[in-house]
C-alpha cells in the first residue's frame, strides 16, 4: 500500500475534484518556495554583511535616486543625469515610492530579491502546471531555474533586468490561462521596467495570430489573439516611446562601425563584445551569443522535451502534456528572431544575448521539469506493466530517482560560491563619511576604482568612474571620454598650469589618489585606463621615465584625508602649488 501512495505522491496529476491532489499541489509549491527562500537568504546575507555593501551594477541606478530625497544632490552631474535618463519609468517609480516611505534605496535593492525570487518561483510553478499538471514537475522546474539564477547576477543586481523573470512568467501564465487582463497588465509593467522583453512578448502574440493546419499557415480563428496583439502593440508604443526619447538627449546609440574602432568593445574593454573566435561570438559570447550564460548543465535536460513530445505515445499514458506547451516554442521563436534583429541593428536594441539569455533559461528549466516528470511516471508505468522481477525493477527505479533528486538538490553545495551576487563592499568607510559632510557640489576627480563607490555611499559626484563608463550613447560617451583623457593628462602632468586649468574647467573640489598612482606599472596593469590609448601611452611613458609630477609632490601638503592606500587632495590647495 505504501508503494502506490509514494508513486502517487511523486507523480500525482492535478484533479480539482480530488482534495488529496490539492494537498500534493500545496506541498510541492511550498517546498519550491522554501528552496527559493533558502537560495535568496544565502544571497541577501551577503548584502547585509557590512554597512557599505551594494550590488555591482546597482551603483549605476541607485546613486542618482537619492535626488528624490534631496534634489540638490549631484548638481550638473553628467553621470547622474545620464543614468536617470536611461532608468525605466516604473523601476524608478518603485524606488521613489519606497524611499518616500522611509526605505533607503540601497536597503531596498537588497530586499527586492525576496519578492522577485518568490514571485518567479510561484509563477514558474504555475506555468509548469499549465503544461504538465504534476506538482513534482513544477518543483523540479523551479528548483533548476532558481539554481540557474543563483549562478549569475540575475536576481541580486537590483537592476531592471531582475524583474524579467517574475513578469515574463506571469505573462506566460496568464496567456496560457486565457486571461486577457492579466496578459496586458504583465505586459505593461514589463514595458515600464525592462522594455527589451516586451519585444519578445509582442513576437509571441504575433505568432499566435497564425495557426499551423494541414502543413499550411492560416490566420487564427480566435478573435482574442488579435485583440491581445493590438492592445499590446498600442501599450508598447505608449510606454516604450517616451523611454526612447528620454535617453536620446545623450545622442544616438553607438553603431557597429564606431564600436569596432573602440577598445571598450574588445577583450579587456568595459564591454568586451567582439571576439576573435567567430563560433564563440555567435554561440556563447556573454553579450553576443545565442546561448550566453546558459548553465547549469541541468538546463540541458529541457532539450529532451521535443523528443518527449514526438514519442509521447510511447511514454506514460497517464500523463499528457497539454497543448499549452506550444507557448514554449513561441517563446523560443520570438527570442531567436529578436536575437538576430538585435544583431542586425547593432546596439540599437541593446545586446543580442539579452533576448535569449533570460527566456531560454526559463524555457529550458520548465522543459526540464516536464521531462523529468514524464520520465519518472513512465518508469513507474514500466514497472507496473512488467511481469518479471517487478520488485528489483522498482528498487532500481527508486534508487535512480533518489540519486537524481539528491544530485539536483545538493548541486549548489558542490560550488565554491552560491549564489553569485556580485555585491561590492566599500573599502573606505571613513572616506565616505568625510565626503558626506562636505557641500553637495564637492566633485571628486579620480582614476581609482574606489571612486565608483563614492556616489552611492558618500552621495557626492565623481568626474569619471569605471562602473559608469558605458559606451552606448554617443554624446554621453564622448563627454565621458574627454573627461577621462583630460584627467589622465592632468594627473600625470608636470605643468601646474595644466592641472589648474583642469580643476577650473570641471570645478573639481577634491582629487582622490591611490598610494601607487605614480608607480611605473600603475597604468600598464590597468586595462580600463589603457582604453584611452593616446593619453594612457603618454602617461605610461612618463611613469617609466620616472618623471616628477605636480600631484605627486603635493600629496603631503594638500591631503585633507588619508585612508589606507587612498589620499584625498583639496583642489584649492593644489592650485596654490
TrEMBL record:
Transmembrane intervals: 23-42, 94-116, 122-146, 182-206, 226-245, 290-311, 323-342, 362-383, 395-413
Nucleotidyltransferase recorded as keyword: no
Keywords, sorted A to Z: Membrane, Transmembrane, Transmembrane helix
Protein name: Glycosyltransferase RgtA/B/C/D-like domain-containing protein
Organism: Dulcicalothrix desertica PCC 7102
Amino acid at each position: 500500500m505504501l508503494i502506490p501512495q509514494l508513486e502517487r505522491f511523486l507523480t500525482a496529476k492535478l484533479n480539482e475534484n480530488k482534495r488529496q491532489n490539492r494537498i500534493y499541489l500545496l506541498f510541492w509549491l511550498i517546498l519550491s518556495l522554501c528552496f527559493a527562500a533558502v537560495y535568496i537568504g544565502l544571497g541577501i546575507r551577503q548584502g547585509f554583511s557590512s554597512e557599505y555593501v551594494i550590488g555591482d551594477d546597482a551603483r549605476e541606478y541607485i546613486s542618482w535616486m537619492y535626488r528624490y530625497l534631496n534634489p540638490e544632490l549631484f548638481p550638473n552631474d553628467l553621470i547622474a543625469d545620464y543614468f536617470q535618463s536611461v532608468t525605466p519609468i516604473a523601476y524608478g517609480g518603485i524606488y521613489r515610492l519606497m524611499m518616500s516611505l522611509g526605505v533607503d534605496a540601497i536597503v531596498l535593492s537588497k530586499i527586492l530579491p525576496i519578492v522577485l525570487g518568490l514571485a518567479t518561483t510561484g509563477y514558474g510553478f504555475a506555468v509548469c502546471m499549465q503544461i504538465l499538471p504534476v506538482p513534482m514537475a513544477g518543483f523540479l522546474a523551479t528548483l533548476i531555474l532558481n539554481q540557474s539564477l543563483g549562478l549569475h547576477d540575475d536576481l541580486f543586481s537590483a537592476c531592471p533586468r531582475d524583474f524579467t523573470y517574475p513578469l515574463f512568467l506571469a505573462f506566460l501564465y496568464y496567456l496560457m490561462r486565457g486571461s486577457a487582463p492579466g496578459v496586458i497588465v504583465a505586459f505593461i509593467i514589463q514595458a515600464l521596467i525592462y522594455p527589451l522583453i516586451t519585444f519578445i512578448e509582442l513576437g509571441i502574440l504575433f505568432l499566435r495570430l497564425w495557426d499551423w493546419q494541414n502543413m499550411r499557415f492560416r490566420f487564427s480563428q480566435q478573435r482574442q489573439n488579435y485583440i491581445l496583439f493590438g492592445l499590446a502593440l498600442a501599450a508598447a508604443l505608449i510606454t516604450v516611446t517616451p523611454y526612447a526619447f528620454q535617453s536620446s538627449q545623450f545622442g544616438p546609440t553607438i553603431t557597429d562601425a564606431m564600436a569596432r574602432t573602440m577598445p571598450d568593445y574588445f577583450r579587456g574593454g568595459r564591454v568586451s563584445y567582439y571576439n576573435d573566435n567567430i563560433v564563440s561570438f555567435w554561440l556563447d559570447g556573454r553579450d553576443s551569443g545565442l546561448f550566453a550564460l546558459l548553465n547549469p548543465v541541468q538546463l540541458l535536460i529541457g532539450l529532451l522535451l521535443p523528443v518527449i513530445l514526438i514519442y509521447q505515445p510511447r511514454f506514460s499514458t497517464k500523463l499528457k502534456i497539454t497543448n499549452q506547451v506550444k507557448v514554449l516554442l513561441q517563446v523560443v521563436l520570438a527570442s531567436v528572431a529578436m536575437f538576430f534583429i538585435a544583431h542586425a541593428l547593432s546596439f540599437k536594441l541593446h545586446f543580442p544575448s539579452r533576448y535569449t539569455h533570460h527566456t531560454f533559461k526559463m524555457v529550458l528549466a520548465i522543459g526540464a521539469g516536464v521531462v523529468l516528470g514524464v520520465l519518472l511516471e513512465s518508469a513507474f508505468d514500466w514497472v507496473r506493466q512488467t511481469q518479471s522481477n517487478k520488485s528489483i525493477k522498482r528498487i532500481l527505479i527508486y534508487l535512480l530517482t533518489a540519486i537524481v533528486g539528491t544530485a539536483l538538490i545538493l548541486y549548489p553545495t558542490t560550488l565554491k560560491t552560491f549564489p553569485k551576487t556580485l555585491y561590492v563592499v566599500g573599502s573606505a568607510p571613513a572616506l565616505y563619511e568625510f565626503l558626506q559632510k562636505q557641500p553637495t557640489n564637492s566633485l571628486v576627480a579620480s582614476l581609482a576604482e574606489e571612486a565608483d563607490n563614492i556616489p552611492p555611499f558618500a552621495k557626492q559626484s565623481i568626474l569619471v568612474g569605471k562602473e559608469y563608463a558605458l559606451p552606448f550613447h554617443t554624446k554621453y560617451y564622448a563627454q565621458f571620454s574627454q573627461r577621462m583623457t583630460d584627467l589622465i593628462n592632468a594627473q600625470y602632468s608636470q605643468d601646474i598650469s595644466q592641472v589648474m586649468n583642469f580643476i577650473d574647467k570641471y570645478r573639481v573640489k577634491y582629487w582622490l589618489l591611490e598610494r601607487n598612482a605614480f608607480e611605473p606599472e600603475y597604468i600598464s596593469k590597468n586595462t580600463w585606463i589603457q582604453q584611452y590609448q593616446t593619453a594612457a601611452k603618454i602617461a605610461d611613458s612618463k611613469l617609466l621615465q620616472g618623471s616628477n609630477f605636480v600631484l605627486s609632490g603635493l600629496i603631503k601638503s594638500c591631503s585633507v584625508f588619508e585612508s589606507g592606500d587612498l589620499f584625498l587632495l583639496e583642489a584649492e590647495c593644489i592650485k596654490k602649488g
